[in-house]
Design a protein that fits this description.
592 residues, alpha/beta, Rossmann fold, Alpha-Beta Plaits, TIM Barrel, 3 domains, 8-stranded mixed beta barrel, 19% strand
C-alpha cells in the first residue's frame, strides 16, 4: 500500500499540491491563495502533469485539475490517475467553467468541483483543506483495515463488511470460501520470502478482480490463507482456476501453485460470521495434502461430524472429573517359551460417554490430538494405570509391567520428566513397572530434543518401547542411534504381511534388525494361530492381540493375573519338588 506519511516529508512540512493549469494568470491566482499553506507544483500540460504525478504520486496530497489543457482533455488525465488502484486514492478537484462537466468529472472520480472564475480565496482554501483532511482520514482508515502486503481487508474489518453485506443483501444466497496454498512454507524456503510475498500479492490481486467482477468481499486472514464472501455460485473449479498463479523463475519451466479451497455454500446467516468460515476451513482441510482433490464442500456429513466433535470437546472436562474414561488392559505374551507366558500389558483408554455410550478411541483420540486435549487425557491414563498397577501389587501380590502411550504432544511438555517421576513415586512403583510407548514418528520431529528427553527417562529406569514401528518414518541410520528398549511392530504392518499373498519377508527382515539392535520385538494385532507360529519361527519375542485377548477392563483382566500367579506358584512348587528329590537322591547315594 502507498505510504500516506510521504506527503508530509517536505522541507517545510507543508502538504504538496499539484496544480494542472496552462493559464499563467490562473496559476498566479492559485499561487497567491495557496502558497502560504501548501507547497505547490505547477504543470502546464496533461503530459507534464502525469509525468510529475506518477514519478512521485505518494508525495501529493491533492491535485487541482483544469479540464481545458493544450495537449489533452483534463478528463483523460483524470481517467489515467484513477485507473491505477495505487494512485487513485489521491483526491482530485476539477477546475472549469463548464458547468456540464461537473457530473462527468465526479463520475470518473473527482472528489470536488471549483468553478471558474474562482470564488473567494477563503472558499478555495476551505474546499482544499476539507478535501485533504477527508482523504487523509480515509488513508488512516485504510491503513488499519487493510493488510499491508496485499491491500486486501484484514480479518477484523472483513468480518464487519461481511455483516454489512448481509444487511444490504438479506435475501441473497452467499458463500463463505477459504483458500490456502499447499506447502506455502516451501515456496519461502526455496525461493525466499520476497518471492513468497510476491506470490501472495498476485493471488490477492486475482481474488480482488474476481470479487470486483462478481460482487463480494475478500481478505487475507493470515499467512497464506484468504477468505472470500460472495454471492452464491456453482463454478468453484473456475473460481479456483482464476485465482491460481504460476511459479515463474528464470531458467525454469513455469509450474502452477497448488491451491486448495473450502466452500460453505449458501451459508446459514443466523450463525456468526466467524463460524461460517470455520466451516469453510473444515471443508478445505478435507483435501489437505491431496493431489487429486483441491475443493472441499461443507455438507451434511461434515456438519454432523462437526457437531459430534463439539459435543465430545464440551463433555471432555466433566468426563475426566467423573472418571468416565476407563483404562482397559490388553495382555502381552512372551512366546519364546514353548507355552506363552504373560509378561506385561498395554493400557488402552475407552470412553463411556453418559449419552453416547462407548465412544471409539479412533474417533476421540485424533480429535483430542488436534486440539491439544490429548495431553490431559494421557496424564489421566498414566495416573489411572499406575494406581491400578499398585492395587494389583498390594492386593494380589503381583507385579506386572504395563505400557502407556506417550504422544508427540507429550514429548513437548517441559515438565514431562517431573510428571512421570512423580506418578511413579506417588504409587510406590519401580520405574520398570511403567513402560513408555513412544511412536516412531515422534522421533523424526525435532529428534535431538526427543532423544535427549528419552535418554533422561531411561537413565531414571523407565523402559522405552518404540510404538508403530514399520509405519515408514525412520531411516536405518536413525534407528541404530535411538535410545529404545523394544520395537513394537505396527498393527497394519502385521496385517499386510499376512494378507492373501502372505508375503512375510519384510516382516522377517525387521525382526532380524531388532535382534541385531538387541531390542526385543513386540507384534500387536495378532489374531490367528498361524500368525503366532510364523512370528515365533521368525524370532519375534512378544505378541499381543485378539488371539489371546481383546482389551479388558481391570476387573476382567485380573483373571490373567490370577492365572499367572497360579502358574508361577505351580512352577515354583515343581522346581522345589525337583530340588528336594535331587537332594534326597544325592543323600541316598552318599549313604550307599
Amino acid at each position: 500500500m502507498p505510504n500516506s506519511q510521504l506527503k508530509f516529508q517536505t522541507a517545510n512540512m507543508k502538504r504538496r499540491i499539484l496544480i494542472v493549469e496552462d493559464e499563467p494568470v490562473n496559476q498566479e491566482m492559485l499561487r497567491f491563495m495557496l502558497e502560504e499553506s501548501y507547497e505547490l507544483f505547477m504543470a502546464g500540460t496533461g503530459k507534464e502533469a502525469l509525468e510529475m504525478f506518477f514519478s512521485e504520486s505518494d508525495a501529493f496530497s491533492l491535485i487541482l485539475l483544469d479540464l481545458n489543457l493544450p495537449d489533452m482533455h483534463g478528463l483523460d488525465v483524470l481517467r489515467q490517475i484513477k485507473a491505477d488502484p495505487q494512485t487513485s486514492r489521491v483526491p482530485v478537484i476539477v477546475m472549469t467553467a463548464e458547468k456540464n462537466a461537473e457530473v462527468e468529472s465526479l463520475t470518473i472520480g473527482a472528489i470536488d468541483f471549483i468553478p471558474k472564475p474562482y470564488p473567494q480565496p477563503k472558499v478555495v482554501l476551505a474546499r482544499v483543506l476539507r478535501t485533504i483532511e477527508l482523504s487523509e482520514d480515509q488513508d488512516l482508515i485504510r491503513s488499519t483495515e487493510r493488510d499491508t502486503l496485499t491491500g486486501l481487508y484484514n480479518r477484523e474489518y472483513f468480518y464487519r463488511y461481511v455483516a454489512q453485506f448481509d444487511v444490504y443483501h438479506k435475501d441473497l444466497p452467499a458463500d463463505a470460501i477459504v483458500l490456502d496454498i499447499n506447502h506455502f512454507h516451501m515456496i519461502n524456503e526455496r525461493y525466499g520470502k520476497a518471492y513468497g510475498d510476491d506470490v501472495l500479492r498476485r493471488i490477492g490481486e486475482k481474488l480482488r478482480d474476481i470479487v470486483r467482477e462478481d460482487g463480494g468481499i475478500v481478505c487475507r486472514r493470515e499467512a497464506d490463507t484468504f477468505l472470500v464472501y460472495c454471492p452464491h455460485r456453482e463454478d468453484y473449479a473456475v473460481f479456483l482456476e482464476n485465482a491460481s498463479v504460476t511459479l515463474s523463475r528464470k531458467g525454469r519451466n513455469e509450474s502452477r501453485i497448488r491451491l486448495r479451497m473450502g466452500v460453505y455454500s449458501d451459508v446459514d446467516k443466523t450463525i456468526d460470521i466467524e463460524r461460517r468460515f470455520d466451516r469453510a476451513k473444515l471443508a478445505a482441510d478435507t483435501v489437505k495434502n491431496s493431489f487429486t482433490r483441491t475443493i472441499g464442500i461443507y455438507d451434511k456429513t461434515l456438519h454432523e461430524s462437526e457437531i459430534f466433535a463439539e459435543q465430545l470437546i464440551e463433555d471432555f472436562p466433566a468426563s475426566i472429573e467423573e472418571k468416565r474414561f476407563k483404562v482397559f488392559f490388553q495382555p502381552k505374551f512372551d512366546i519364546r517359551p514353548e507355552k506363552p507366558v504373560l509378561c506385561s500389558a498395554e493400557a488402552l483408554v475407552r470412553w463411556n460417554h453418559p449419552e453416547l455410550g462407548m465412544v471409539s478411541p479412533g474417533i476421540f483420540i485424533p480429535l483430542f490430538e488436534k486440539n491439544g486435549l490429548v495431553q490431559e487425557l494421557d496424564e489421566y491414563v498414566w495416573r489411572e494405570t499406575a494406581a491400578q498397577v499398585r492395587d494389583w501389587k498390594e492386593r494380589l501380590g503381583i507385579s506386572l509391567p504395563v505400557s502407556v502411550n506417550v504422544s508427540r504432544i507429550d514429548m513437548d511438555d517441559p515438565y514431562l520428566i517431573e510428571k512421570m517421576d512423580g506418578i511413579v513415586k506417588e504409587n510406590g512403583l519401580d520405574y520398570k513397572e511403567l513402560l513408555l510407548e513412544i511412536t516412531e514418528s515422534a522421533y523424526t520431529e525435532d529428534s535431538e530434543q526427543i532423544v535427549e528427553k528419552v535418554e533422561k527417562l531411561r537413565s531414571m529406569g523407565f523402559r522405552i518401547e518404540m510404538d508403530d514401528f514399520g509405519s515408514g518414518y525412520s531411516s536405518l541410520n536413525m534407528i541404530s542411534s535411538l535410545p529404545i528398549d523394544a520395537l513394537k511392530l505396527d498393527m497394519q504392518f502385521i496385517r499386510n504381511a499376512f494378507k492373501e499373498r502372505k508375503d512375510t519377508r519384510l516382516l522377517g527382515i525387521v525382526i532380524q534388525l531388532a535382534d541385531a539392535l538387541e531390542a526385543p520385538t513386540i507384534a500387536e494385532g495378532v489374531e490367528t494361530e498361524e500368525q503366532l507360529l510364523t512370528l515365533r519361527t521368525m524370532g519375534c519375542d512378544i505378541v499381543q492381540g485378539y488371539y489371546f485377548s481383546k482389551p479388558l477392563p481391570a476387573d476382567e483382566f485380573e483373571a490373567f493375573l490370577v492365572k499367572k500367579k497360579e502358574q508361577e506358584e505351580k512352577s515354583f512348587k515343581e522346581k522345589e519338588s525337583k530340588e528336594k528329590e535331587s537332594e534326597e537322591k544325592e543323600s541316598e547315594e552318599g549313604e550307599s
